[in-house]
Amino acid sequence: MSNSGEVQLSGGTSSNGAAAESSLFPTYARYPISLVKGEGSWLWDDKGNKYLDFMCGIAVTNLGHAPVKVKEKLKAQLDELWHVSNLFHIPGQEKAAALLTANTCADAVFFCNSGAEANEAAIKIARRYHQKVKGTGRYEIITFTQSFHGRTLATLTATGQDKVKDGFLPLPAGFKSVPLHDLPALEANINKDTAAIMIEMVQAEGGVYLVEPEYMKAVDQLCRKHGLLLIIDEVQTGMGRTGKLFAHEHYGIEPDIFTVAKGLGSGFPVGAMLGKGYLREAFTAGSHGSTFGGTPLSMAVVTATIESILEEQVPQRAAEMGQYLTERLNAELGALPFVKGIRGMGLLVGIECAEPVGDIVLAGQRRGLLFVTAGPNVIRLLPNLLVTKSEIDQAVSILAQLIHEHTAAAVNPM
Ligand SMILES: *Cc1c(COP(=O)(O)O)cnc(C)c1O
Fold first, then answer.
1. Is 115 a pocket residue for ligand 1 (Cβ < 6 Å)?
2. Which ligand 1 atom is nearest residue 237's CA?
3. What is the pLDDT of residue 6?
4. Calpha distance 94→109 (Å, rounded)
5. What are 320-335's pLDDT values in tens digits?
6. Containing structural domain, residue 289
């Protein structure tokens, strides 16, 4: 690590020290760092400080920053064609979709631009399937407490956290959240209006909570029994992150619909909703669409990303490195009273702590290690999937230092 001492953080204030009024809406509480360059596991800020990236833009840059093969395909496509309307055939879209369907349980793909849009498409196709194909009036989607599905009106309503709904009333009708792992509560909420159940295999934003395999089998069976569609939100867990191409593969189930976005474009904004063949009838021409969904530029990136993931056996690497990371964390931190639990799937790892961890994140930035939280008390680690053992060792050693300092400061406040 080049950051032997404390890093001087950049940004946030003007030269006279007063907070400058930004021309942006203040929707983000931003850290005082401006990152300007990235390569592999490393980022640099505008002051030349180097950071080990264990957040990856929140599970986006799964192949590291500026992966060479993807970059070259993007550059080549820049010389050919950037955008055409979906009124035309787009060969790159067919190719990317064929790669996705060949390697998953899905038969058809709809491309969009973000995770929220992918979930929005999932909600729409579920309703339309029941209403147009099945001829029932079913519309309701059951989701789970602590889930996260996005920030559009429908997806924030689907999200099982009140903080994303604050001030946005009235919310669209047709959503209910039930506690995860409470099967009777789920069953009690299924009625003649229920269209689908939507679930994350790991509640990532909500605190890195893994869905138990037995429970997931039961959820799948309930869907089959009641004729409900099973929608799995793989926006954060997809593209190899958990040690399989998609997290639901760990559970031996085949969802009717699943969504993907974050890791799909290696940092290029793109999302997708994937589904079984019988859903084709629900998304007939004119029923849904997106100007930017599946442009030649984004499809070049998606194809290169998937090819890299398959060729370099990235999911398997993520499984191995995830195991190494949790082993190292358990060895270094497992016995500390401050650490309540270490859990994860592949390289989506949470460290549950006894207290809020916001200041540990900031202290990490000063030491040159970037990571995020998941809820107030959970440290969330999301390194890229090609991370090395040596990089993991460096991150774990910094984390151990940070936690020791944090607990020492709490015992002995200055
Ligand atoms: C990030 C995320 C979303 C929203 O994705 P955006 O691209 O920000 O719209 C939805 N679901 C899950 C599980 C996510 O992690």
1. yes
2. 13
3. 60
4. 9
5. 999 999 999 999 999 9
6. 68-311
